């Protein structure tokens, strides 16, 4: 599956990758928190801009300020990774986390695949 200029409203709970068509030099952002991104910050990895973050949680899921967001740059896999205490403790009811964001391709010669 190939998407044109953007891929909207990706929902993840753990790890997301955006693939690139070639391995060009990347501008990597340092680790940040999900709260920073929800508050309007952006993160750029290679030719991909990640922005418009939202986060909702129930139960034992971590607060957005307790979730780290890290840039990933592996051959063919440019994206971001979420790291936090995503677990459900026994006896407290169900827990759920939803992270949404937009990915935009900055180079018109590339597309988002997969």
Summed up, what is this model?
By secondary structure, the chain is mainly beta. The chain contains one helix and ten strands, in the order ββββαββββββ. The strands form three sheets. The chain has a four-stranded antiparallel beta sheet. A four-stranded antiparallel beta sheet has the order 3-8-7-4.
Radius of gyration, in Å, reads 15 Å
Kindly state the number of beta strands.
Answer: 10
Question: How many helical stretches?
Answer: 1
**Fraction of residues in helix:** under 10%
Shape, per Cα inertia axes? elongated
What would the average pLDDT be, to the nearest integer? Answer: 76
Low-confidence stretches: 1-28
- What is the makeup of the main sheet? 4 strands, antiparallel
- Tell me the structural class: mainly beta
Sequence of strands across the biggest β-sheet: 2-9-6-5
Strand content: over 45%
Separation, N- and C-terminal Cα atoms: 6 Å
Order of helices and strands: EEEEHEEEEEE
Overview features:
4% helix, elongated, mainly beta, single chain, 4-stranded antiparallel beta sheet, 114 residues, disordered N terminus, 1 helix
Can you characterise this structure?
With 114 residues, the chain is mainly β. Helix content is 4%, strand content 48%. The chain is built from one helix and ten strands. The chain has one helix spanning 34-38; strands at residues 2-3, 6-12, 15-18, 32-33, 43-45, 48-58, 68-74, 77-83, 96-105, 112-113. Strands 2-9-6-5 form a four-stranded antiparallel β-sheet. The longest helix is centred in the N-terminal third of the chain and has 5 residues, at 34-38. The N and C termini lie close together (6 Å). Residues 1-28 have low confidence and may be disordered.
């Amino acid at each position: 599956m190939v998407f044109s200029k953007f891929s909207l409203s990706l929902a993840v709970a753990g790890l997301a990758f955006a693939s690139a068509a070639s391995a060009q030099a990347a501008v990597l952002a340092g680790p940040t928190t999900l709260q920073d991104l929800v508050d309007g910050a952006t993160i750029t990895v290679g030719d991909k801009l990640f922005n418009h973050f939202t986060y909702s949680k129930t139960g034992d899921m971590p607060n957005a300020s307790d979730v780290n967001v890290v840039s990933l740059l592996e051959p063919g896999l440019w994206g971001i990774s979420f790291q936090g205490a995503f677990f459900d403790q026994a006896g407290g009811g169900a827990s759920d986390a939803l992270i949404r964001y937009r990915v935009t391709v900055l180079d018109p010669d590339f597309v988002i695949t997969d």
